[in-house]
Amino acid sequence: MTVRIDRRSLVLGGSMGLGALLLPGGAHATASLLGARGFTHNVASGEPGPDSILLWTRYVPANGADAALAVELSETPRFERVVAGGRAMARADADFTARTIVGGLEPGRWYYYRFAAPDGAVSPIGRTRTLPAGPCARFGLGVFSCSNLPFGWFNAYAHAAARDDLDLMVHLGDYLYEYPRGTYPKLQDAVKGRIIDPPGELLHLADYRLRYAGYRADPDLQRIHQLFPMIAQIDDHEVANNSWTNGAENHQGDEGDFAARKAAALQAWHEWLPVSDAAWSRYEIGDLATLLRPETRVTGRSRELKMSEALKDRSVLEDPARTMMGLMQEKWVTDTLAASVKRGARWQILAQQTNMGRLFTPPDALSLLAADAPDYLVAYTKGGIAATKAGIAGNLDDWGGFPASRARILAAGEAADADLVVLSGDSHNGWAFELPGTHGRAGVEFGGHSVSSPGYEAYLTATPDTVARMVRGSSPELKWADTSHRGYMTIEITPDRVNGEWVFMETVRERSQAVSGGHRMSVLRGARAFAA
To answer: Start and end of every Phospholipase D N-terminal domain (predicted)?
Structure first.
């Protein structure tokens, strides 16, 4: 059923609001946020179940003490009748963020919610939705990853938030970036007004908190959180680039203890997003699907190999002990896939962070580079070409660097007779893979492009069509690619078909909801391959 939203009502009731911050150009508002009082960052919801939802807000009282907030839910935006509620604590030791899980709700239903403070201040009104139970004819996901604020506007969030055919948002990671100003992007490449704080690299709890405060001041990010529940998972940049259990590429010895940095990053993540404390979880979408949210970065991931190590000794790369998520979590994925099939769910959706399909560097990839390409890019490309000749995927930070772990997950789906659909982000480009099992096809993968982080188009001089053709030619599992657009994906789940669409935003350099086309692909139940 399509719900018509009284959108004006969703911005009523705000006290100590963000009027100045919601103007175009207002994303650089961190300085003013330091002294803000009241409900500083709107509202958000997540972790939906058939009868419960997690609600989030941030409230800073004038006296700087903890504050008990009242929570109300209604089936209408004007709250003629309150149907559920509870209390949430905005605690100083949690950066004044507050979250609570409200139960006793009806499945598959839209709800409106708000928070009230002891001083009479009332938050903006949010909208959220519980998961369906039992027979379900259709369910729509919006899928996002890699939103780098100085690289551009979050137009993908704005466009998705205006839709009425989506039920749940899924963020696959790189919700923010840890780099200092002037690093990815360079200062001359940053969009005017999209300034990040603190100016240095994120290392400590105060750093991560301040960066979240700045990102969460973005009006389009606020809007999508206000109107839809979101399931979110971290990737690497919420901690540090190419992170794993005990370290990261972007963590040096003079930056302190990595364990302390990781703990600070995870604390800020749990404070500022509407997420539970569970490192991984599953969500039952009626009889349609089970959505699995694994954690593939900081719980059990082995160290990423250098390409020189993999080329020197292939057995090191293929070591069965190397894993993306740890053996305990692999068992959870295996058991959850089997349980989902047993209960009669028609689809098993693995919403995780990096490409599971293997990408191989084209043998003539050097022809894609500009004549004055930097030495590091030339060396990286040569390493990828050597890897292709050795039968090794070109990116050892994704599942291609953990072949035994990948094989176990795909074999688990095949053994369970799952209709496996993998969702992935991280790469900034759009991909469609058919994933092989031990005896046949194990499933398909929809790889999502980024919200704003640049893709291959920023580094290669060849046309996008040429790049996509060459990568497809060297990568047998790859069935489609786009290497030049920013945006988001939608996944429409029906009993007999899953339809995926890559939505291409026209620009991220200016604030706009204009699109420049897209691409659609589908998989039929039982086929485990894309429809012709």
So the answer is: 41-130
Q: Please give the Cα distance from 28 to 31 (Å, whole number).
A: 8
Q: How confident is the model at residue 4 (pLDDT cuts 50, 70, 90)?
A: very low
User: How far apart, in whole angstroms, are the C-alpha atoms of residue 404 and residue 143?
Assistant: 27
In total, the chain counts a number of residues equal to: 532
pLDDT, position 370: 86
Burial of 359 (0-12, 13-18, 19+ CB in 10 A): buried
Neighbours of 510 (CB within 10 A): 13
Q: 266 Cβ partners below 8 Å, 6+ apart?
A: 234, 239, 298
Sequence letter at residue 162: A
User: In which band, very low, low, confident or very high, does the pLDDT at 3 lie, cut at 50, 70 and 90?
Assistant: very low
Confidence at 17, pLDDT banded by 50, 70, 90:
very low
Tell me the whole-structure pTM to 2 decimals: 0.94
| Lookup: tokens for 340 | 């989902």
How far apart CA 470 and CA 365 sit, in angstroms, is 8
CATH class of 131-524: alpha beta
Following DSSP, what letter does each residue of 339-371 receive, concatenated? HHHHHT-SEEEEE-SS--S-----TTGGGGS-T
